Structure formats: structure tokens, C-alpha cells
Amino acid sequence: xxxxVEKLSARGYKITPQRRIxxxxxxxxxxxxTAEEIGQEVRKTEPSISLATVYRNLNLLADLQIVSRLNxxxxxVRYELHGGHNHHLVCMDCGVAVKLxxxxxxxxxxxxxxxxxxxxxxxxxxxxxxxxxCSLKRKLQQAxxxxxxxxxxxxx
Amino acid sequence: xxxxVEKLSARGYKITPQRRIxxxxxxxxxxxxTAEEIGQEVRKTEPSISLATVYRNLNLLADLQIVSRLNxxxxxVRYELHGGHNHHLVCMDCGVAVKLxxxxxxxxxxxxxxxxxxxxxxxxxxxxxxxxxCSLKRKLQQAxxxxxxxxxxxxx
DNA sequence: CTCCTAATTAATAATTATTACCATTTAGGA
DNA sequence: TCCTAAATGGTAATAATTATTAATTAGGAG
Lengths: 156, 156
Prior knowledge:
The structure is a homodimer of 156-residue chains.
Chain A: H1 3-10, H2 17-28, E1 33-34, H3 35-45, H4 51-63, E2 67-70, E3 78-81, E4 86-91, E5 97-99, H5 107-115, E6 119-130, H6 132-144
Parallel strand pairs in A: 4-6
Antiparallel strand pairs in A: 1-3, 2-3, 4-5
Helix pairs in contact in A: 2-3, 3-4
Chain A binds a DNA duplex (30 and 30 nucleotides) through helix 4.
């Protein structure tokens, strides 16, 4: 529980209670959280913490590779402790994300990275589509509203 | 040059010049473009097209799986014609994206998707890290500024 | 070819997500 | 204990995207 303390102080960054709390929250969550969600959670412990502080620290921590950014589908950026494998089936309708147990970061890919002098820090593999429910829902909609029915207007 | 015409009109959506132009631009570009960039390009042909129209159509086209959204690193969402393989080494500093020639969407993954009743539409595989240059730059910075030197303050 | 209507558009206001700014506070080494 | 760079809270500013609305248009029916 202090690899990050080293990483920070080794570079002259201070160990503030705010940082402690943010990392603790990320450590206790298995989900990936948005800055907003982290802010809310943080405020339960220390109500005066500013959202700007949350953002500032998440950026710093991401830069130091202590946390990692996750840009699933749309909506705000999400964060989690660095190091996990982030491979999901993501529903483009409802946003549900099922973890995949497979990791594509292997032989071939590593070789290409090396050839390019690329310093790999992290990787994401996302399979986008529609979960069972939403897939069904869409098929029904399409069956009906072909060329009329409801408001063909906006969606998503 | 009309698979998308069918997809649209089959569902009662109209074939507007705006849509034509947007898709033409995406077709002629090998890069993935932001809504803003598409807007600028579009306006060269038809200066009166509103950015809102660009966004609206990109959303619709994405929903119909005619184009696909690409959320590389930070910055705005990018778009390209659906169907390409989107596998990159992405530099977290300068944003450079090198295409990978490897596709992880194979056996195992397809099986998991199927088991979940998941309708796969697209997939992205991103390897995040630092390109040769930025990697070097960072190492130099760290060597110097350990615990002092410059503004330890913000960074991305 | 003309008419009609739902779909679409342009323009702009509103909303979200994130960053910048600045005066004040604080971590942590001398 | 003191000092200073780093960090914070509060808020204004910016960027990206969506909603709203009155006016226009694609494309099928007659």
C-alpha cells in the first residue's frame, strides 16, 4: 500500500490527504469510476474536497501511471488503478460492460511496439456492439418502424 | 457507393446532400476525423452546413453502423467509415497513433461474445504508452527535475 | 409534375466535461 | 520551528456535444 507514495515523493510531489483518499477509493472499487463519481465518494470522507482537485490529481496520477484512463464508449472518462486488464464487451446502447477473460497483448504486438521504440504502458481492448437485451430491442424497433411508425428522428 | 443509401432509406431516413457530403469526406480520408474537422471539410463544399447537423448525422450514422466512433486517448471523438480495423499504438503525450497490423478479434473472443448473446459490431484495440521521442523526453525530464528543478506542477 | 408531410436543417441556446486561474493553505525538508 | 514550492478550494472559462425551434426539403402519393 505505498508503491504510489514512492512514485510521488521520488519526484517531489507531496503526499496529501486528498491523494490518499482518491487512491483509496479507486483501490476499493472494482468498477471504473468517473471523476464525478470519485468526487462524490471522496466527499463522503472529506466534504470540502474540490472537484478540480480530483481532476488535477487524476491527471497527475495518470501521468505517473499510477491510475489509468479508460474511455469506454461515450460519456465521461473513467479511471481505475493502473495495471488491470481492460478488455470488455461494451454495449453501445446501454453501456453495460462485460469483462473478457482474454488478453491480446502478446508476442506479435509486443514485437511491433519494440520495433517502433514504443514504451508500452497500458492497453485496452474493446468489443463494441449490443448486449442481448438491447440487440433484441433494436430488432423489434426496426421491424416496426421501417419507414414510418414512430419518430424516426433522433436516437442514441 | 450506396450500401449506406440502402441502410438509410430502408429505415425511412432521407438521403440529404449533407449526409452525402459527410460520407464522401469520410470515404476519402484514411485518417479518422473529429466532428470539427469534418465540419470544416464539409464547409468547403457547402459553406452553410451547420456543425449541429454534422454531429446529428454522425450519431445517426454511427447508430446504423455506417460509421464508427473512435475514442483515441483524450481529445474529441473521432469518426471513420465502419468496418476498418482500429488497432493502434497511441502515444499518451503527443497523440501519435501507429497502426498495428494485428487483430485480436479471433476465436476465443468471438466465442465469449456468442455465449453472452452479444451482437458484435466493431472492436478497438489500443496500446497506450509513449512513442520513441516522447519516451526519451520524459526520461530526461525525470532525470533532471527529481524533487525540484522546474515547475513540478501540472502536466498531462 | 405537383402536393403534402414527416424528416431534416441552420442557427443558436443550453448542457456536460474538463481545465485555468488565483488567493490561501500545507507538506515536508533545512 | 520556519520556509517555500507544491497543492488546494472555489469559481470562471473553455471545449465538446446536445437540445430546441422555426423554416426548409426529400421523396412518395395522387
